[in-house]
Amino acid sequence: MNPHIRISLVVATYNRSAALVELLRSVAAQRLDPALWECVVVDNRSTDDTAARFEAFSREHPDLPLRRIYEPKQGLSHARNAGIAASRGEIVAIVDDDERINPDFLTAYVELFDSRPDAASAGGKVIPVYETGRPHWMSLYTEKPIANPTDWGGRVRPFPDGHIPAGGNMAFRRSALERCGLFNPDLGRIGDRLIGGEESDLFARLRRAGEPCYYTPGAVIEHIIPARKLTRDYFDRLCYNIGVSQRIRADLDGRTGRLFLGEGMKWGAALLLAAGYLFMLRPAKARRLLGMRRQITRGILG
Prior knowledge:
The chain is of the alpha/beta class. The protein has two domains: 7-230, Spore Coat Polysaccharide Biosynthesis Protein SpsA, Chain A, CATH 3.90.550; 232-301, no CATH class. The protein has ten helices and nine strands. The termini are far apart.
């Protein structure tokens, strides 16, 4: 490990070359000394012009510590694990290729881990940016699976109980990953397959090992949401696969019964919330909320 590299930024990408370049522009604007960081882009078998556009960007920014590696095993968990293995920093930050990071993103994570020697992991703020505007049917509850907005205030604090950092804005002390393991390749997106749960699985292992997780408001990402992710078909597929992911994790952990019990309780809450939206004359919010619950339940049972 290069002792001068404090933090490695790992980005997995698959067939989103234009979005990747937008992210890299925000990486190029980092205020942290380039001698202290690196950015590892993991090309997960892209078939578009990702390689060419990355090389062009690198030539335009020869002083930036940018690297691209190729991971032939399809899947987000495979790609992230490859990026972690190829990186050299004592801290590993992970973002997605459909985001922009603020200029002090890397600085915030370095300062967090320096000021909290017990910190094993951390997460920051997530701000959704809707290219075509926030849809009228969206509520606080139906926004979470699409954009996962995250804001726990303006000070560093332990991550609240029952919550974990967003998958597109999380960081780890490398030693904690060495103790608790990386992402489970049985979970996580594979190509266009919307399976998830790999972050929840990793943070559950860290939590069981007693590894503290902190929130830092200085690490901010904008999550870019295109129109195609706001269609009914995409939302239904996403929610169905959330249910599939929850069932896989429950089966692996031997807690399937608890999953079914919890889903029943969530149905009760969803019905009460939907009734409230109907009372406020917001039927679209009620319909989409109940549709989300139905698709998640289908995924669990399927």
